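Lay summary. Proteins are chains of building blocks that fold into shapes, and those shapes determine what they do. In this project we predict the shape from the chain. Here is one chain we studied, written as its sequence of building blocks.
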Amino acid sequence: MEFALYDSESGYYARAAQRSGRAGDFFTSVDVGPVFGELLAVQIVEMLGMVQSQSPNPESRPDLVEAGAGNGRLSNDIVRSIRTRDRELYGRLRLHLVEASAGAREAQRDVLGDVGETLASSSPELPASFTGVLIANELLDALPTHQVVMRDDGLREVYVDVDRDRLGTGDWRLVTTEGAPSTPALAEYLARLSVVLEPGWRAEINLRAVDWIREAVRRLQRGFLILIDYGHPAHELYSVTHATGTLTTFTRHTMAGPERPGAEPAWLERPGEQDITAHVDFTGIQRAAEDEGAVTLGLLDQTYFLLGLGAAGMEGADLKTRLALKTLLMPGGLGSTLKVLILGKNAGAPALRGCAFRMRLT
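And here is the predicted shape, written in a compact code that computers can read:
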């Protein structure tokens, strides 16, 4: 998964500055239009105001970090809205875009245009230290994950190999194989969450996502994290409902169907030419963040998060904006399949606008 998505020459994300949108393989909230970033800006302005009020230096410059920023489209929408809402905050803002793809990083200046003056850094790595807000929209589901399967004799890991019978024929293909877990951390992860997999169940365990959130919380000195992604709490993710696992692909807005018995999974096909994703275990992410000193302030559907930020009060907007809001809020679509996890560190336990409408997961 790491090679297929992130290899600097052959990786799916490395070979294009943008993969989403109508001409891409999948659709994100950012593709709906600027209204998503404008609503996020409402929450970010509130958060940065809280951070600033607690700062011993009133002249300090707050940080806005976007992880998995791509070519910067979401940050562009957010920062433009901040400029409209609060010119003084805009003038002090330091924007940090974190993106693995060199091609996407090269496109960021052009995408940001005249708000590029706020850009403090563009890098594959998180800032060493920051104070303010970090946002990650659909990042964790694309981090390389382990896949395991429970057998009668215990936990096994699923590996990728080459069909040995075809080596030397010029018609090689990738296959899956099972073996002993590559690290005891996989079984320890399930045990820590009191997860019991039944024989035959497959599941993804994203140790990389756990490492990422731990590092993000360590580097955040004071402020908030907003994580938006596909996923579930552990009790739902590791259950009969998802007993075949959630690892899948998207190509031209079509998700791969269920795996056929005896057939190799779709995510092995055309490496580097299609997206690969797995649902996020929000319980594991919460636990890891809390271990590093973060506090969970909210976990809710995107629908309720955006309604808390004032989406319902935009009924007087133009038709294009109203249609965009419908896409963002609709149950069964982006509104309920995307979840929002809000964390704070050294910022107390404030009542946030994004959590004001309803704290609900569906």
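What the prediction tells us: The domain at 2-144+206-232+277-355 is CATH 3.40.50.12710 (Rossmann fold).
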